[in-house]
């Protein structure tokens, strides 16, 4: 901004003051306005009117420049400033405080700044210099040598050699010289990385395309442009070099590869390039290899570089008719395609024939096993074999079991007519005895012949029927299944239902899927006369879509023979699989889904020479991936394992995934059903099951059985490894470890319920031994040492001999991970806590009570900050309990891993309160209370953990939750002074403007703008923890009219601990930021001691509701309105005892701050009584809020309005007349 025009500079926000101030100063200097802004030029007292007008004009112009370069959210800071000098000083005061807290924070930020892996050096140095500039601005001098040391120590481990080289010097380089060296080193590494990223393929290949085109037979032209990496000359390679070998790559074996450039080709992992220059077969895909052994080997390239092989094994390639096994194949993950070495192939007995446009490889008998056509000078072969599928045990009985006990003649027909791919049969008998089939299909009577009026097109006629109720609920809670069969193709789709009335929803889903996949519209729906098909909604839907309904004659199921027969066949096949596998009846839905999957890939008399799958999709199915239902499977265990623990986990195959190319596996240990792609099957092996089906956890099985074919790792008898980073989808993780409070003195903070990290999946150790054996041992050790050093520094204890008659209490290390608002790891924490459970009342403790602020009060403070333009900051007191003194002598054993070697038998006499002691919380609260009172703050009588200090029109409020402190103030200067005063008494972590307090995410528009609070990251973590990240969202937390009571005969109990854990996690969310789920959660909490399956299903429905509403927030804004209350009651809402529910919500600053949903203690005889009781309960909260607001200094809020929609209750409140219909109401409600 100048007289000549506007300069484009970055506008000021709450993060860029330093860079903004430099640019703004430059603009003002250029405009010749800076002397006025900085105060160097002031208006003379004896200035003439003209001089005064000129000065004022320049001052106004400078002020306008400043105002125009500030974002609207920051204008509140300077809108009352009438001169440019005041505005500049005000901004400097706000964004560049010079108190000790600011200096400590910045220096700590510089000290703990760490360069992250992958970060560019220039970005890291810029960040370092930015912090240094901020320190210089507030007059903090840091010696240059110390700056160089800090900068070097902040580098990643990959720079260790660079640091060692600097340390070897006699003196440190200047900071500027060090900066130049680091930038040069960073640029060099970046250039190397970019060279590597351009592809191992690019680097691995040298230009052989042109050589082949010019002269395939000339060895001179072949090596003309190549450089020998042994002698450095051109025209030959090291393998033909006459000079002594100079390259030393260690003791590892070295292979050589001359490979053609593929820059103009698009290759994949199925491509095999047949190359005469390669000395070894090379494979980039670990899953194609068998008999694999890890082996490090260098692959030297035509330049001065090399690739690294990770292992060696065998690969089978060829076509469906002929194949060959390549041995000693090197595994090179950096390649993007595979290579067949011609020399290796010839050595193994194969013959290579090359014509002008084609290359063939023949086996010893002369049969062609590979044929490759020339493409851009390369001979490329695409492997047709699916080596990921086991070809073992290709006998009739195996395939009979894999196909769900399909009859032998159908298998024979499918094999002879080649109706599917991958089916290999040998010596098919005419008949075969199967005990499972005999037990499951005995006395099966034939249905009458089906109608001859077959459909000619897909979706022309759809048959449907419902089977059930099944006597056992499925593990998904279903009692029925519905089938939809296409008349023309006989393709079956199965849906699982909890009740018959869900058939309408199932048909809509089927219709959308079928019409989308086939591009054909459904014309006729044929069903029986069941009520579920005759609903008004169903009928209207059919009419709207032009679908003709065909109903059977009542009590004549033969007319719906296709669907009836399909259901019977599915049940028989499912029953056979369950009997054969030995699994429980609760797996019937998994078996039925598998049966539908198999029947769609099996021959049927209704189709000639085709399977339903082929008729539906126009593609022949591949069945080589089929496995026996109930077969033992080994899947990768993704949980953290020690080096010598098994990597695989035994599971049971219970079907094929309907959403991905994978299997459905049941884990008997955790009683969970997962979906996994990387599996090894043990043929003929089964896992015995004696599980309680009620403890099984799975996902909704109402989805359609889509036809995706899994891609499974090959079964081998050698070393098992599945080289895939694909996680099993929709897997439920383990429950969070329960936190033992161990003390009443310090209320447990309501942090994340989940022991999971977004940035790192950290398993929290329980003992020191577990921490020392964890892969995060360095982090845990560092955290323990840091905690121990802090305790020693604070003189927490004295090492003494145990006095006679005294008994020491134990101590232990407790571990946790500090999270950021987005769930990523902030730091590892370790806390030494005393085992206060062994303390005795009156001997080493007395009082234990310690108050904390209510969540409703925290929200009220946030609302007041919006309504009255208060600044809102937060801070955390480090090791808070260690700041308080003990009134009793307490002796503690020395902590594990930190026992004094000189005096191992001595004990610790505590001088200060240690975490875990029963009185620690109370002692800390009293210490903090005394400090705040000394600062002039007074605690509220209504809320002892809220302190106020008001002067004139200034508000200063402090809310305390143990060691977390929330500060609201009218003046940013006063707020910084408050933080500085607290920092003099305790070590604090200044969180700045409140963003993440007690697990609540706080977002604000500027310093004093609108505020939104939410817990979306907590919701996402909770969904992930319960395996419901991909669940379908619903629009309500509970179904309308849901009751917690249930029929005792029909009850299926679930695990009480898991249910309570889920309800506790939801309750924390409900009382923090989600009033919309409070009633639902409190209703389900009534079953905490006796939960059933329907209650757990209802709790999961709340999770599904949260999935769709995770981004909802409570928005607080300035409204200039009073606090208002809304009350309602649900008369007789609980069917078990006919008691009513009271609900209330208090609104301030445009959003709710306090809410409640509670069952009334009496049975209301009328809606008037229920509403009146709810009014009474809300009135008590209103009186409390009025008193609290008055103590906070907001006494001008006027009367509080309570809204209610029952006129009778309102009349009774105004005039409590006692008559026959109201005199019985308890006196406490009047």
TrEMBL record:
UniProt key word Coiled coil: no
Biological role stated in the UniProt entry: The aspartyl protease (PR) mediates the proteolytic cleavages of the Gag and Gag-Pol polyproteins after assembly of the VLP.
Taxonomy of the source species: Eukaryota, Metazoa, Ecdysozoa, Arthropoda, Hexapoda
A molecular-function term among this protein's GO annotations: nucleic acid binding
Gene3D superfamilies in UniProt: Ribonuclease H-like superfamily/Ribonuclease H (3.30.420.10), Zinc finger, CCHC-type (4.10.60.10)
BP GO annotations: DNA integration; DNA recombination; proteolysis
Domain (CCHC-type) ranges: 227-243
Matching SMART domains: ZnF_C2HC (SM00343)
Gene name of the record: POLX
Pfam families per record: gag_pre-integrs, Pol_BBD, Retrotran_gag_2, rve, RVT_2, SH3_retrovirus, zf-CCHC
PROSITE patterns: INTEGRASE (PS50994), ZF_CCHC (PS50158)
Signal peptide per UniProt: none
Entry keywords, A to Z: Aspartyl protease, ATP-binding, DNA integration, DNA recombination, DNA-directed DNA polymerase, Endonuclease, Hydrolase, Magnesium, Metal-binding, Multifunctional enzyme, Nuclease, Nucleotide-binding, Nucleotidyltransferase, Protease, RNA-directed DNA polymerase, Transferase, Viral release from host cell, Virion maturation, Zinc, Zinc-finger
Protein name: Retrovirus-related Pol polyprotein from transposon TNT 1-94
Location of the Integrase catalytic domain: 444-620
Gene Ontology cellular-component terms listed: DNA polymerase complex
């Amino acid at each position: 901004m100048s007289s000549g025009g506007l300069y484009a500079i970055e506008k000021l926000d709450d993060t860029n003051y330093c860079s903004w101030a430099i640019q703004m100063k430059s603009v003002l200097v250029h405009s010749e306005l800076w002397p006025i802004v900085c105060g160097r030029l002031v208006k003379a007292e004896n200035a003439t009117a003209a001089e005064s007008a000129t000065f004022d004009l320049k001052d106004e112009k400078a002020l306008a420049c400043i105002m125009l370069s500030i974002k609207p959210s920051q204008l509140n800071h300077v809108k009352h400033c009438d001169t440019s000098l005041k505005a500049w000083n005000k901004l400097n005061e706000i964004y560049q405080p010079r108190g000790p807290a600011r200096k400590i924070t910045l220096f700590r930020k510089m000290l703990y700044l760490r360069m992250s892996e992958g970060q560019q050096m220039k970005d890291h140095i810029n960040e370092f210099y930015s912090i240094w500039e901020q320190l210089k601005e507030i007059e903090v001098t840091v010696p240059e040598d110390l700056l160089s040391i800090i900068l070097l120590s902040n580098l990643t481990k990959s720079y260790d050699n660079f640091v060692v080289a600097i340390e070897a010097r006699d003196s440190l380089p200047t900071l500027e010289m060090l900066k130049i060296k680091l930038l040069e080193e960073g640029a060099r590494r970046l250039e190397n990385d970019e060279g590597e990223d351009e592809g191992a393929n690019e680097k691995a290949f040298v230009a052989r395309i042109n050589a082949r085109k010019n002269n395939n037979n000339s060895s001179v032209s072949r090596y003309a442009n190549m450089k020998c990496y042994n002698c450095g000359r051109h025209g030959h390679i090291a393998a033909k070099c006459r000079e002594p070998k100079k390259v030393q790559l260690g003791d590892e074996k070295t292979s050589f590869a001359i490979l053609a450039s593929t820059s103009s080709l698009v290759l994949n992992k199925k491509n095999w390039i047949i190359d005469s220059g390669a000395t070894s077969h090379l494979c980039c895909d670990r899953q194609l290899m068998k008999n694999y052994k890890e082996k490090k080997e260098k692959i030297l390239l035509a330049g001065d570089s090399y690739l690294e092989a990770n292992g060696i094994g065998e690969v089978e390639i060829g076509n469906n008719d002929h194949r060959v096994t390549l041995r000693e194949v090197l595994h090179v993950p950096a390649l993007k395609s595979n290579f067949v070495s011609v020399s290796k192939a010839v050595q193994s007995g194969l013959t290579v024939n090359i014509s002008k446009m084609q290359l063939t490889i023949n086996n010893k008998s002369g049969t062609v096993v590979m044929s490759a056509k020339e493409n851009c000078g390369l001979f490329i072969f695409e492997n047709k074999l699916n080596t990921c599928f086991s070809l073992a045990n290709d006998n009739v009985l195996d395939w009979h079991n894999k196909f769900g006990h399909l009859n032998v003649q159908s298998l024979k027909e499918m094999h002879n007519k080649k109706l599917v791919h991958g089916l290999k049969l040998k010596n098919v008998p005419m008949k075969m005895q199967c005990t499972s089939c005999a037990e499951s299909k005995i006395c099966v009577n034939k249905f009458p012949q089906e109608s001859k009026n077959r459909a000619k097109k897909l979706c022309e006629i759809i048959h449907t029927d419902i089977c059930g109720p099944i006597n056992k609920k499925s593990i998904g809670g279903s009692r029925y299944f519905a089938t939809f069969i296409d008349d023309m193709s006989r393709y079956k789709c199965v849906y699982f239902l909890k009740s018959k009335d869900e058939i309408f929803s199932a048909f809509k889903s089927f219709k959308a899927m079928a019409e989308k996949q086939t591009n054909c519209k459904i014309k006729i729906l044929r069903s029986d006369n069941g009520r579920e098909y005759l609903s008004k909604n169903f009928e209207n839907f059919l009419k709207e879509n032009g679908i003709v309904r065909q109903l059977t004659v009542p009590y004549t199921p033969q007319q719906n023979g296709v669907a009836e027969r399909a259901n019977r066949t599915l049940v028989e096949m499912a029953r056979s699989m369950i009997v054969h596998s030995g699994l429980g009846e609760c797996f019937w839905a998994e078996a039925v889904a598998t049966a539908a999957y198999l029947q769609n890939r099996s021959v049927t008399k209704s189709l000639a020479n085709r399977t339903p799958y082929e008729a539906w999709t126009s593609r022949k199915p591949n069945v080589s991936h089929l496995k026996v239902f109930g077969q033992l499977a080994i899947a990768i265990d993704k949980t953290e394992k020690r080096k010598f623990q098994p990597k695989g986990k035994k599971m049971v195959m219970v079907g094929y995934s309907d959403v991905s190319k994978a299997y459905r596996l049941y884990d008997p240990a955790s009683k969970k059903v997962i979906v996994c792609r990387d599996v090894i099957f043990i043929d003929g092996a089964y896992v015995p099951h004696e599980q309680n089906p009620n403890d099984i956890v799975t996902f909704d099985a109402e989805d359609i059985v889509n036809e995706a074919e899994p891609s499974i790792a090959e079964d081998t008898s050698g070393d098992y490894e599945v080289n895939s980073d694909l996680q099993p989808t929709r897997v439920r993780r383990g429950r969070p470890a329960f936190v033992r409070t161990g003390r009443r003195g310090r209320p447990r903070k309501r942090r994340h319920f989940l022991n999971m990290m977004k940035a790192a999946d950290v398993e929290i150790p329980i003992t020191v031994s577990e921490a020392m054996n964890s892969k995060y041992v360095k982090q845990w050790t560092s955290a323990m040492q840091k905690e121990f050093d802090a305790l020693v520094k604070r003189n927490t204890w004295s090492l003494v001999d145990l006095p006679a008659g005294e008994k020491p209490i134990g101590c232990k290390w407790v571990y946790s991970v500090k999270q950021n608002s987005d769930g990523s790891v902030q730091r590892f924490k370790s806390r030494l806590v005393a085992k206060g459970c062994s303390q005795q009342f009156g001997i080493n403790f007395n009082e234990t009570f310690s108050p904390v602020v209510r969540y409703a009060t925290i929200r009220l403070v946030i609302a007041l900050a919006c309504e009255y333009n208060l600044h809102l900051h937060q801070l955390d007191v480090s090791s808070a309990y260690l700041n308080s003194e003990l009134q009793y002598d307490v002796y503690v054993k020395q902590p594990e891993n930190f026992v004094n070697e000189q005096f191992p038998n001595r004990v610790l006499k505590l001088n200060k309160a240690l975490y875990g002691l029963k009185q620690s919380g109370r002692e800390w609260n009293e210490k903090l209370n005394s400090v705040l009172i000394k600062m002039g703050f007074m605690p509220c009588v209504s809320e002892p953990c809220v302190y106020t200090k008001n002067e004139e029109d200034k508000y200063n409020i402090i809310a305390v939750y143990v060691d977390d402190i929330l500060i609201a103030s009218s003046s940013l200067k006063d707020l910084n002074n408050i933080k500085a005063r607290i920092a003099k008494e305790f070590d604090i972590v200044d969180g700045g403007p409140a963003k993440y307090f007690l697990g609540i995410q706080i977002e604000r528009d500027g310093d004093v703008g609108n505020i939104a609070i939410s817990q979306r990251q907590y919701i996402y973590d909770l969904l992930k923890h319960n395996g419901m990240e991909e669940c379908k969202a619903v629009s309500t937390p509970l179904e309308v009219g849901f009751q917690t009571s249930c029929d005792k005969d029909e009850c299926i109990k679930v695990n009480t601990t898991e249910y309570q854990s889920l309800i506790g996690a939801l309750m924390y969310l409900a009382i923090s930021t989600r009033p919309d789920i409070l009633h639902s959660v409190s209703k389900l909490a009534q079953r905490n001691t006796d939960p059933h399956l329907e209650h757990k299903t209802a709790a999961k429905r709340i999770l599904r509701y949260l999935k769709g509403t995770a981004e909802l927030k409570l928005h607080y804004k300035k409204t200039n309105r009073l606090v208002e209350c809304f009350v309602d009651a649900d008369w007789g809402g609980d069917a078990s005892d006919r008691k009513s529910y009271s609900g209330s919500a208090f609104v301030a600053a445009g959003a709710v701050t306090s809410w409640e949903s509670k069952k009334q203690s009496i049975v209301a005889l009328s809606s008037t009584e229920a509403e009146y009781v709810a009014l009474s309960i809300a009135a008590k909260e209103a009186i409390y809020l009025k008193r609290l607001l008055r103590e906070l200094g907001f006494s001008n809020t006027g009367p509080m309005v309570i809204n209610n929609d029952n006129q009778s209750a309102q009349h009774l409140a105004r005039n409590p007349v006692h008559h026959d219909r109201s005199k019985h109401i308890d006196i406490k409600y009047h």
